[in-house]
Amino acid sequence: MKILLVDGTVFGTKTGALLRQVEKYIKEFDSSLELEILYFSKLKHQILDGSPLNDDMKMMIQKFEEADGYIFATPIYQASIPGVLKNALDMLPPKALRYKPAAIVANGGTFQHHLVVENQFRPILDYFRCLVTPNYVYTHTSHFNENDEIIDQDIHDRLRELARVFVQYCKLSQTLAKEPIDNH
């Protein structure tokens, strides 16, 4: 199975640090999964405005379509996910992520911003009909050192548990037909 770990921002390094840690934990539970981190900061983004897509956006869409599961990492800016992440999701066909496992890790400047994950980002993944794990991990600046390394043991434990549950969702998704009975 191909798992795409999506660093959904063009600024900062905490989301990338979260993904690299989750990547290690996933490998502990299932080393057969093919893991790839997609860093939005390395792509030439364009606004979805009807104009022809550039090569980076075509490649990004292809990676989403070919992946069998996703770990999304997002910062929370101004009580919202970054526009670049929402714009990328807007480029995807509605059935591209259907019945594929997904998990969310996020980082924000205040402890209250964790609600954005549950109230804003999860509904978007629900729209795509992803198999979203029930346990997301939200981190705060205080959970990292000056080099953006995770220093909080509870966060490590929660990331490990997220990885464990995600791997089980991957196994479940292998037996679930991606074509629905209904036409929606």
Q: TL;DR?
A:
With 184 residues, the chain is α/β, with parallel strands linked by helices. It has 5 helices and 6 strands. The mean pLDDT is 95.
What does this structure look like?
- By secondary structure, the chain is of the alpha/beta class.
- The protein has one domain: 3-Layer(aba) Sandwich (Rossmann fold).
- The protein is 39% helix and 18% strand.
- It contains five helices and six strands, in the order βαβαβαβαββα.
- Strands 1, 2, 3, 4, 5 and 6 form a six-stranded parallel β-sheet that branches.
- Helix 3 links the parallel strand 3 and strand 4.
- Helix 1 packs across helix 5.
- The chain is globular and about 45 Å long.
- Keywords: Flavoprotein, FMN, Oxidoreductase.
- GO terms for molecular function: oxidoreductase activity.
- This is NAD(P)H-dependent oxidoreductase.
- It comes from Ureibacillus terrenus.
- InterPro entries: Flavoprotein-like_sf, FMN_Rdtase-like_dom, NAD(P)H-dep_FMN_reductase.
Q: How many H/I helices?
A: 5
CATH architecture group name:
3-Layer(aba) Sandwich
What fold name goes in the CATH topology slot? Answer: Rossmann fold
**Uncertain regions spanning at least 5 consecutive residues:** none
End-to-end gap? 25 Å
Helix content: 25-40%
Number of domains: 1
Strand count, sense and barrel status of the largest sheet are: 6 strands, parallel
Per DSSP E runs of 2 or more residues, the count of β-strands stands at 6
The Cα radius of gyration reads 16 Å
Backbone structural class: alpha/beta
Order of helices and strands: EHEHEHEHEEH
- CATH C-level class: Alpha Beta
Strand content: 15-25%
CATH 4th-level superfamily: Flavodoxin domain
Mean pLDDT: 95
Shape: globular
